[in-house]
Amino acid sequence: MPPVEFTALLALATAMSFSPGPNTTLSTALAANRGLRHAMRFVCAVPVGWSALLLLCAGGLGAAVVAVPALRWGIKAVGIGYLVWLAWKLSQSGQLGEADAARMDVGFWQGAALQFVNIKAWLLSLTIVAGWIIGREDSLQRLAVVLPVMALFALSSNFVYAAVGALLRHWLARGRRLLWFNRAMGCVLVVTAAWMVRA
């Protein structure tokens, strides 16, 4: 891959991975409520799920989703519904002890599966497959470069957001700070869901 294309890939990866979205919001919220160690299951799940999505898009699933509007709308509807449900659960937790499995707990496999209903993940996967992989003579070599780079960005961005959430944990434990923080994170998820409606 020429240096210019690789630089463009890094710029896209930085912008998309480190901008707020469902994954980074959940990483922050999980670490703030349950601690960094608990959030790491989700943080590690994101690159696994996203890598699987990228591989499937490169294998032709992306073209099928683009070609079949009902499938695209189905993915979008499930993703929006899940984000709104998570936002509701999150907004109800006002104390660290309340953020238990009954309130909000996103494990490894849920985190990996979330990538398949995350419109931002789909857009990034489709953009990368169309711009850097499909139609190139060296498509497999390009995929071998792109996949670990993007997985590393997914892991590092979610870890950074989770670390911020963990740093805020003790400060949030005072008064009603955690409740308002959780409601703010819930609002970010709802705004993301609203964006997904229009995407």
UniProtKB/TrEMBL annotation:
Keywords: Cell membrane, Membrane, Transmembrane, Transmembrane helix. It is a multi-pass membrane protein. InterPro entries: LeuE-type (IPR001123). The keyword Cell membrane applies. The keyword Manganese does not apply. It is found in: Cell membrane. The chain crosses the membrane at residues 47-71, 113-134, 146-168, 180-197. GO terms for biological process: cysteine export across plasma membrane. GO terms for molecular function: amino acid transmembrane transporter activity. Its main location: membrane. GO terms for cellular component: plasma membrane. It comes from the Bacteria. Pfam families: LysE. PANTHER family: ARGININE EXPORTER PROTEIN ARGO, ARGININE EXPORTER PROTEIN ARGO-RELATED. This is Lysine transporter LysE.
